[in-house]
Specification:
- By secondary structure, this protein is of the alpha/beta class.
- It is built from 16 helices and 15 strands.
- Bound molecules: pyridoxal-5'-phosphate.
- The site of pyridoxal-5'-phosphate has 12 residues, from helix 4.
Length: about 525
């Protein structure tokens, strides 16, 4: 194990014989100057357990009946955040109309066992996909497309298409504003494309058009803009950037994952939304997630291409084996048609009128939320979004503590770490269901802000950030990582309502590459 600093002492073994059911090993206790003073909140389950629990299924000898299984699933979901009702302002999208979600669930189940792998075997898939993709193309400027499992896969395919349709002399590169979704970094990582980051305007948070253009090189295969970018909900200057990409012969992707099925309805409801779709000259592809503001069950997105040849560059075929020939439109090969059925049914169950009504309610709720947040002492809004995504920061109140306080009150408000000069902030995705609870949400934000002010800023134990920054994570075993997490109040065995302010403050103090390394380790520990 590396020693980041001689001040840090490492002691061994708190417990030689772990209790049954817990992983074995002699965890290292990691010490740092402020360790004794660090006080996470008490765990509701009693004293913190330094070990990481390994749970396995215990495959039953005899099959069990459905009622029992569903009861067990209900038990497993007890600590989950609620997916309906509007108190969770990220991850889930609720129309507030149970009958729509019911229709989707039934259609999903109906298509569940159909495999989209071979469209000649299951022509229902082709008919349904043509309809769903066609609906997205009709709303967003035309083109030809692919139904995918989500925004990340849509983006992956757009990047692959760009890479393969425009060979360059060097390593292919793409220009990505700093506010663009990490899915572009993931696609670049998987596909061997280099990323050139472009700055955004520090006041509007929109991509800096001049800097984005200046980052284009002879090896650039794709320029990315967002409509809107997720963090502050603002639409990048699509027309200008797409135009200058086209002038250089470079493709331009509009990431409308969150906004594609939202902005047109907000515009129709009266919002000012600049042109952003495939009808804008120079835009060559666009991603639109139906499992966000399309309100479809998860696993539903569409990527559109202006040119059928570009769509072909996203496809993959292989006849290089002695088995069935593989033709894949997507990254996944065998996959359930359930999400496609769910998306088809949701579009049909809501219709134009349904989406427009949801758009009106969303717009009204976003206005009220922005107005209400601006009136809370110490909070300030970030940017002036065209969308219904709202971000706010504070110079006086610790926003991570505010988020924890809201969670105690039964609301999930998503914390965002500082990055590229943008301060740490809270993100709220306003959806169709938000309006009916917007006053309650504002009340909780105001109370949580007051409570966070009262508690004062997170006091990080002395030396903790330096310790984490310098840790050799590869040399640390899972138990030692679990112990470190427990010592700052994170119970990796636990469920329920974690207090995340200390963790967020530590992450916030680290550079991005260290944040990533710690998060990957965290993931591996919770799944161990
Ligand atoms: C959600 C989102 C994505 C990624 O979508 P997933 O469906 O989570 O894979 C990409 N871009 C933006 C702007 C998003 O909001």
């Amino acid at each position: 194990m590396s020693r980041p600093d001689a001040r840090y002492a490492y002691a061994y073994a708190v417990c030689a014989e772990p209790p049954a059911g817990l992983s074995r090993g002699r965890p290292e206790v990691i010490d740092w100057p402020g360790r004794a003073a660090s006080s996470g909140p008490p765990s509701p389950r009693g004293p913190r357990e330094p070990y990481v629990r390994r749970s396995s299924m215990n495959l039953p000898d005899k099959g069990r009946d459905t009622g029992e299984l569903l009861a067990e699933i209900a038990r497993m979901k007890e600590a989950d955040l609620p997916v309906r009702g509007g108190k969770v302002t990220a991850y889930v999208y609720d129309t507030g109309r149970p009958e729509v979600h019911e229709a989707a669930a039934r259609a999903y189940a109906e298509m569940l066992e159909v495999n989209t792998l071979d469209p000649t075997a299951f022509p229902s898939v082709v008919e349904m996909e043509r309809q769903v993709v066609g609906a997205v193309a009709d709303l967003l400027g035309g083109g030809t497309g692919i139904f995918t499992s989500g925004g990340t896969e849509s983006i992956m395919l757009a990047v692959k298409a760009a890479r393969d349709s425009r060979p360059v002399a060097g390593r292919p590169r793409m220009v990505v504003p700093v506010t663009a979704h990490p899915a572009f970094h993931k696609a670049a990582h998987y596909l061997g494309v280099a990323v050139d980051a472009a700055p955004v305007d520090p006041v509007t948070f929109r991509a800096d058009a001049a800097a984005t253009e200046a980052a284009i090189t002879d090896d650039t295969v794709l320029v990315v803009v967002s409509a809107p970018s997720y963090p502050q909900g603002v639409v990048d200057p699509v027309g200008r950037i797409a135009g200058s990409a086209a002038a250089r012969g470079v493709l331009c992707h509009v990431d409308a994952c969150v906004g594609g099925w939202l902005l047109p309805w907000l515009r129709e409801a009266g919002a000012e939304v600049p042109p952003f779709d495939l009808s804008v000259p120079g835009v060559t592809s666009l991603s639109c997630d139906l499992h966000k503001f399309g309100y479809s069950p998860k696993g539903a997105s569409v990527v559109l291409f202006a040119d059928p040849a570009l769509r072909r560059a996203a496809y993959f075929a292989s006849a290089s084996w002695p088995g069935y020939t593989v033709i894949n439109a997507t990254v996944q090969s065998s996959k359930s048609a359930g999400p496609l059925g769910g998306a088809w049914a949701t579009l049909q169950a809501l219709g134009r009128e349904g989406y427009l009504e949801l758009g009106r309610a969303t717009l009204a709720a976003a206005h009220r939320l922005r107005e209400g947040v601006a009136a809370v002492p110490g909070l300030r809004l970030l940017g002036a979004p065209e969308s219904s995504l709202v971000a706010f920061a504070s110079d006086e109140i610790d926003v991570f503590t505010l988020s924890d306080e809201a969670r105690r009150r039964g609301w999930f408000l998503q914390p965002q770490l500082s990055y590229a000069g943008i301060p740490a902030n809270i993100h709220v995705t306003v959806t169709g269901v938000t309006l009916r609870g917007v006053e309650a949400m504002l009340q909780v934000i105001a109370e949580s802000a007051a409570a966070a002010r009262e508690r004062g800023p997170v006091r990080l134990p002395e030396g903790l950030v330096e310790l984490v920054a310098g840790l050799d994570l590869e040399a640390l075993d899972d138990a030692a990582f679990g112990e470190l997490a427990a010592s700052v109040g994170v119970d990796l065995n636990g469920s329920g309502q974690p207090e995340m302010a200390v963790v967020n403050a530590v992450l916030d103090a680290l550079p991005a590459d260290r944040r990533e390394a710690v998060l990957i380790r965290f993931l591996s520990v919770i799944y161990s």
